[in-house]
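Q: I'm a student working through a structural biology exercise. My instructor gave each of us a protein and asked us to get a predicted structure, then write a short paragraph describing it. Mine is Mannosyl-oligosaccharide glucosidase. I'm not confident about reading structure output yet, so if you can add a plain explanation after the tokens, that would really help. Here is the sequence I was given:
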Amino acid sequence: MRSNLAKRVVTPHPSPPVLDANSSSAKVSPERFWGSYRPQVYFGMKTRSPHSIVTGMMWMRQFAEMDVNLRHTCEQGDRLHGYGWLMHDGLTFGVQEIRDGDLTLTTEFVKRMGGDHGGDWTWRITAKQHSSAPQAPVISLMFYAAADTQGSLEAHVEERNRLASITGFSEELGNFKITFRKPVTGELSSAKYASYNYLQTVSPGLEKLTEIVKYSLNRRFVYSPPSGEKRHYIAVDTYRPPHNQQKPADPRKESAFVVHQVTVQTPFQIEVLFESGSFHTRPNQLVASVMTQELERRKAEFEAKFEKIFGLQSRGFSQTHIRFGKAALSNMLGGMGHFYGQSVVQSAYNEYPLLYPPGALFTAVPSRSFFPRGFLWDEGFHQLLLSKWDPQVTRESIGHWLDLINMEGWIPREQILGDEALSKVPAEFVVQRNENANPPTLFLALQELIEQLSSNPEKWDSQPTLPFLRRLYPRLKTWFEWYNTTQTGPLPHSYRWRGRDRDTNLFLNPKTLTSGLDDYPRASHPSADERHVDLHCWMALSSGIMASVARLLGEPHQDYERTHQVLSDNNLLNELHWSEQLRAYSDFGNHTQAVSLQQEKVYVPPGQPRHQFPVARLVRSVRRAPKLQYVNALGYVSLFPFLLHVLTPDSPKLEHILRDMRDPDKLWTPYGLRSLSKSDPLYMKRNTEHDPPYWRGPIWINLNYLAVRALHHYSNVEGPHREKAAALYEELRTNIVNNVYRQYAETGYIWEQYSDNTGRGQGSHPFTGWSSLTLLIMAEQY
Ligand code: 6A9
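A: Happy to help. First, here is the predicted structure for Mannosyl-oligosaccharide glucosidase. I'll explain a few features afterward.
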């Protein structure tokens, strides 16, 4: 019995998967086979396969003060002045700009369909110097192809060290050829002086590519342009593993890895072509002026579609605002990744963590540098934007996520799939526990798909939604049931997030990572007596969408309908969550406000030197015992009944909510709504000495998006608060758009959160996950 229970956490859901096993293959979906699905590198492409041949680019500056400044995976530590997609349609092309010191690299790709393996593509890299320094920088670009346990690569060298092309074969790509063209200054100019080097070796895994290149660098090469001094430069030579790495690699993982290095002075332009062997009817090569024409055509199509969908021009936005809007969309599309691997999971019935069944995930990522992987509740927000551009992307993303559900109805919250993803995560964050939820925001994205379907059922791109929902439905039911049974609270129709930190003595307020709002204040003493108002509202929303989906499919919907009605009952909500004292909605639990972090007392015997004893750490001191009561923290959580439209338009509570929102001593700032009231005792308080405030003041765009959307909603329905909502809508919308835009213009990035004090972007960057919802706010699409 016990062993059966222990297996449940890693047993897949029994219903047929939403996506056929070959749905991402070159045969079934050729136009989405190749893509920039490696958001964790500055520039690279792969196919939507479990073990794709990957291609990518590294670069470094020669003769620089800093010795080796190799760039490859997106790292905040590289301190680039900005990088990201300016245009990307998620399908056929992309244009990215990278600013590294005074160097600007433009990386463009265009795909061309043909043959049976996803067709061809061409990259064009344009390098320019930004400043007017006397010496134009000399740059090395390192283009590479690497296999991942399958497929072969063969290097073709001409003229001494110049790797002219790579030919290769893999099951999914068939035969292919990658050609490295020589650098030119412009499309019509002839070749310019360059030095060439290459590396041909094997890698034990894709996460090791940077290291292999680093350990193969040698400065014995001489750069000697016709009209200049001879200088030694750094280039790939032979790979010599560091001494401490004598461990023999797993031979099954050893895969071909080939690097082409070209060293050349700016300005220059280089093209790299991938040609599929099965493409026999290719009219010409996608290079030079043909490439330029293709790019221009794609850009024009992109512009037209962008304006048609988001209408920024017709809303009177400036050209710079429009460019920002395009970047927001393009980075979310260009941040789509395809991952494959196994989560590490644990249930109460496992002594040790287990490996989840291997699975694929096609998903957007919150941040290319800091968290280039899938996060469950982030994805619902991502798809709110992407569904406007390409609902097929949304169906495929949701399909992939729901195909990762186990027989219990649980989906791991953070998806760390494959060695590359794993290499970015500290060990203590890897294991995912099956008691733990994350807000079911995918229902928000489903709601959007359903609305598109009902508003325009004939539209070609919403037609596949109905068959999609039909396949999704058995899994969706189990997913909803999982929340509705495992996350229930102490009273009927109440809910409680699981997975709160138990080590109460170490944290000012134990975190609730599962809610997505990490350190947002909850009951000071986690217990089974808690009830959480945000989760109540998520369940009200989800049951409503379940009812709509069931109705659309002609399935029994009465139970969902009833649940939705009960959870939306404003009287019940008030009984469970309205705090008269706070005059706001609130969590309830075993709670005291009388807590603070204090230096732990360290006993030093008289006469002993102080420094021989451990440094006192901060621990929580509780001055008054907790009791069952409302938590009375005012912030995002108190807004949920409004944010998710659970309140009826005539609810008298709306008046309080709108007033608190507009109050600068509480939630209002000139840059958006802050996460926690300025008057709350935990406002901007650290949780431990190492843990700065996160959801305790700063402005987050996902919830600001919901707030603007809710204001829009309440200003469009009859009710006593309609005008107030309309006025706030205009103000809040303007504040958010202006600030996120201004920060982007000033810093080159879209950020994880914004300071409530100065509006400055902070946290990880680029963060083009939900912060990109600013575009929907500009476009007034909710
Ligand atoms: C820790 C550090 C290289 C935190 O956007 C993803 C999530 C959100 O879902 C959540 O609501 N972020 C928010 O509170 C970022 C979580 C990052 C955890 C990774 C490991 C990696 O160091």
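A: Here are two points you could use in your paragraph. Residues 722-747 form the longest helix (26 residues). The radius of gyration is 28 Å. It's a good idea to check both against the output above yourself.
Q: Great, thank you!
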